[in-house]
Every structure is written in structure tokens, then in C-alpha cells.
């Protein structure tokens, strides 16, 4: 059974049952309550009469009781002496006799009758008995009369219950119906959908919770989509990396094969085995260094995450500066260092390797008698060097790609393996540190790392 039908049945049953119980209560309890209230009211009036008459002279008592007897309705007063002689009403009084003969307090005329008797004392000290008979109509006859109308009353109650239940069941489930329709639309995961929040009750809270849940679902889907794009990008980068690596290894291997083959067959100048064996050794050493760098780059994520700790970066950098001071003297460079105490969370070994790669590039590509500056302050590391030519926007976009070298450095003997900045990028991104590499002025390149 749906909520609409359940609400209809429950509300209609409750209204009908409550109305019938109220009718039953009125039928049985109201006459009893009316009788008790009426009797108590007459009793209160009788006691007030007793209070007024008590202590008055005899003549005054007779005058007052006659007056009060005419004022008080549904009550007949009589006054008797101690010897049971009737003092009021006087039997000689024609009116009193007619009233006694009328005897209006008979069972046939009133369905509720009774009497009270109290002792009063006159001012002269004589004792009298004040006798009061009361009678009134209860609601029993009225209730019996109403029974004849009960079928029509019951019919009205049922019609009222059905009408109210129908309206309530529709109105109470209207918002739930809207929420249900909206949630069915949400199955398509379409952006921008939300349940209307009407009111401040539990249904409104439900709509708000559904909206919050759907927003989080949309956010999770977007994060998954972005992560999927990043995974695809990483796969493409891996494919490019393998392709570029194969290309980088192919040329020196082919060159060395030619040298070995020439020496093997003693072709022309290749008869000088000592000279060309040294060339082969140099090629193998370069390729060994390249392969070591490649293997190191492929294991960065796991190695960095497995060995992370709080490190004092300024002290870590200080351990390697001595060799750079010597290199600056040899290359006639101005090497300026300024460091403040800085603590960070990370892998000290790989962070130092990244910084050394940046410094190596700074020294390698600085102009003669140029300046290299290292500044560590405010959770930032800045490495600047004065260069002969600034990198352009296209070169800066590709500078972190593996084996990329700017055109002006390709033929230099100290051009490096072309994988140093790629390793720097992997180390910094794995740590979650922001970085920038750009020109700071007309002759200076700046590498900025924010911890």
C-alpha cells in the first residue's frame, strides 16, 4: 500500500474513531455531569438560605423564608418547629395549601428529586428545622432524543473523515512525490538537479540531505573523471617516456656497434683499438648513467612515500654547498647563498637530489662571470642564475619533458642527459610542493619552490 493510501486510511480511521468516542462520551458522561453540577448548584443555594436565616428573630425568619421560597426555583422550602409543627407554609394559607396539593415535586414531573434538612436557631434561642425539596430535569431525555439523529451524525462524521483524510493524504505526500520524481531524474547523473526544499520539517531535511548527497556524488564523479584523465595522461607520458628512451638509447648503441664492428674487422682507422675502445667505454659510461637515471625516475613515487620524515632543509642543503663553491671558483661564477632555518616534511635524499639537479643546471647554463643565487626563506626556495639567453615560452612548456634540451645546448659537451628536470618535476609533484620556472628579469632565470 502506498503512503497516500496509508495516510488516507489512518487519518480517516482516526477522525471517525475519535468522533464516535466523543459522541459516546457526550451521551453517557454529559447527563451525569449536568446532574451533579445542577445538584451542587441547588445545594449551594440551600446552604446560603440556611446561613441567611440562622440567628434571625422568629418573625423575620418566617418573612425571609417566604421571600426566598418565591425567589429560588426548583426548590420548595418548609420550616418545622422542634415538635414537628409546620410553621411554613401555613396550612391556613390558601396559596400554600394549593401549592401542597399541587405537589409539583413528584417523580412523574421531575426525573431528579431530593431533599435536605438543616437545624437553624432563632435569635430567641428556639430551634427550627429547615426542610428543602428540589427537583429538576436531567439531560437523559435530551440524550434519548438525540439518538434519533445519530445515524445522520455518523454519516456526517464518515463523510468529514473521508474528505479530511483525502485532502491530508494528498497534501502530506505532495513533497515526497516531487522528491521521488527528482531522484528518478538524478539517476541520469545530470548536473544541476536538486530537490525543492519547502518548509522546515523532516521532509525538507530529507530533500536537503538528498541534494547534499547528490552534490557529493557529482563531486566524486568529477574527481574520478579528473583522476581518469590524469591516469590517461600518465599512461601517455609513460608511452612517450619509453619511446623517447628507446630513441635516446638507439643512437649511442648504434654508434658503439659501428665502432666495435670497425675494430673487429680492422677497417681503416679502427685498427687503433686503444683509441676506439676508450670511446666505447665513454659511451657505455654515459648510457650507464642514463639508465641509472631512468630507473631512479621510475621508482620515485614508491621510494619517496616509503621514507618521509621531518627534515631541516637548510642543514641538508649546507652539506652539499662546498662542492658548488669550488665549482663556482673554477667557472668564475658569483655564488650567493642565503638560508633561514626551515623544517619540512619529505624525503631528504630525493629533495636534495632535486635541488642539486636545479643547481647543476644553473651552473651549467650560466654565462661566464655570471651570478648564481640560492635563497631559502619564508618556506620558499629560490635558485636564480644569469644566462646568455632566456628560455622562450615554448621551451619553458617542454623543459620538464624527459630528454628535452633547448636547441642552443644540444651540441655542448656538458649538456647533460636531458632527464634532470624531469626527475625534479617527479620529486616535487610527489611531495605536493608547488614550483615555477621562469625568467625573473632580462638576463636571469628563476626556479621557485614553495613548501
Query: What class, by secondary structure content?
Result: alpha+beta
Which strand order spans the largest sheet, edge to edge or round the barrel? 6-8-9-11-10
Average pLDDT works out at 83
Uncertain stretches of 5 or more adjacent residues: 101-107, 410-414
User: Quick one: overall form?
Assistant: rod-shaped
- Enumerate how many helices there are, as a single number: 13
> What's the Cα radius of gyration?
56 Å
Please describe the biggest sheet, giving its number of strands, its sense, and whether it closes into a barrel: 5 strands, mixed
Q: How much helical structure, as a percent, in the residues? A: 55-70%
End-to-end separation in angstroms reads: 62 Å
Number of strands: 11
Strand content of the residues, in percent? 15-25%
* H-E string: HHEEHEEHHHHHEHHEEHEEHHEE
Amino acid at each position: 500500500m502506498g503512503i497516500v493510501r496509508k495516510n488516507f486510511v489512518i487519518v480517516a480511521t482516526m477522525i471517525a474513531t475519535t468522533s464516535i468516542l466523543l459522541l459516546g462520551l457526550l451521551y453517557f458522561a454529559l447527563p451525569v455531569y449536568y446532574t451533579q453540577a445542577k445538584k451542587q448548584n441547588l445545594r449551594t443555594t440551600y446552604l446560603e438560605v440556611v446561613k441567611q436565616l440562622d440567628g434571625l428573630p422568629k418573625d423575620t425568619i418566617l418573612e425571609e423564608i417566604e421571600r426566598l421560597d418565591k425567589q429560588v426555583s426548583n426548590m420548595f422550602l418548609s420550616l418545622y418547629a422542634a415538635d414537628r409543627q409546620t410553621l411554613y407554609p401555613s396550612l391556613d394559607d390558601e396559596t400554600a395549601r394549593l401549592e401542597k396539593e399541587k405537589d409539583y415535586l413528584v417523580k412523574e414531573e421531575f426525573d431528579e428529586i431530593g431533599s435536605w434538612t438543616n437545624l437553624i436557631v432563632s435569635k430567641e434561642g428556639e430551634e427550627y428545622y429547615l426542610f428543602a425539596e428540589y427537583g429538576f430535569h436531567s439531560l437523559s431525555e435530551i440524550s434519548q432524543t438525540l439518538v434519533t439523529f445519530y445515524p445522520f451524525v455518523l454519516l456526517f462524521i464518515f463523510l468529514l473523515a473521508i474528505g479530511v483524510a483525502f485532502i491530508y493524504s494528498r497534501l502530506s505526500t505532495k513533497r515526497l512525490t516531487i522528491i521521488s520524481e527528482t531522484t528518478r531524474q538524478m539517476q541520469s547523473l545530470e548536473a544541476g538537479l536538486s530537490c525543492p526544499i519547502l518548509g522546515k520539517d523532516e521532509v525538507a531535511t530529507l530533500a536537503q540531505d538528498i541534494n547534499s548527497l547528490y552534490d557529493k556524488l557529482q563531486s566524486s564523479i568529477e574527481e574520478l573523471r579528473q583522476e581518469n584523465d590524469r591516469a590517461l595522461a600518465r599512461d601517455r607520458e609513460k608511452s612517450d617516456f619509453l619511446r623517447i628512451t628507446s630513441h635516446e638509447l638507439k643512437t649511442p648503441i648504434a654508434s658503439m656497434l659501428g665502432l666495435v664492428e670497425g675494430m673487429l674487422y680492422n677497417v681503416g682507422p679502427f685498427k687503433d683499438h686503444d683509441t676506439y675502445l676508450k670511446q666505447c667505454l665513454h659511451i657505455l659510461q654515459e648510457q650507464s648513467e642514463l639508465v641509472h637515471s631512468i630507473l631512479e625516475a621510475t621508482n620515485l613515487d614508491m621510494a619517496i612515500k616509503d621514507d618521509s620524515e621531518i627534515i631541516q632543509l637548510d642543514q641538508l642543503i649546507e652539506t652539499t654547498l662546498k662542492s658548488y663553491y669550488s665549482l663556482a671558483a673554477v667557472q668564475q661564477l658569483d655564488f650567493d647563498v642565503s638560508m633561514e632555518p626551515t623544517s619540512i616534511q619529505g624525503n631528504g635524499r630525493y629533495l636534495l637530489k632535486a635541488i642539486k639537479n636545479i643547481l647543476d643546471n644553473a651552473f651549467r647554463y650560466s654565462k661566464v662571470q655570471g651570478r648564481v643565487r640560492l635563497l631559502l626563506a619564508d618556506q620558499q626556495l629560490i635558485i636564480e642564475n644569469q644566462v646568455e639567453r632566456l628560455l622562450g615560452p615554448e621551451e619553458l612548456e617542454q623543459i620538464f619533458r624527459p630528454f628535452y634540451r633547448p636547441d642552443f645546448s644540444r651540441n655542448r659537451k656538458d649538456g647533460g642527459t636531458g632527464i634532470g628536470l624531469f626527475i625534479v618535476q617527479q620529486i616535487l609533484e610527489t611531495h605536493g610542493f608547488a614550483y615555477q620556472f621562469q625568467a625573473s628579469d632580462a638576463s636571469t632565470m628563476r626556479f621557485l619552490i614553495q613548501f
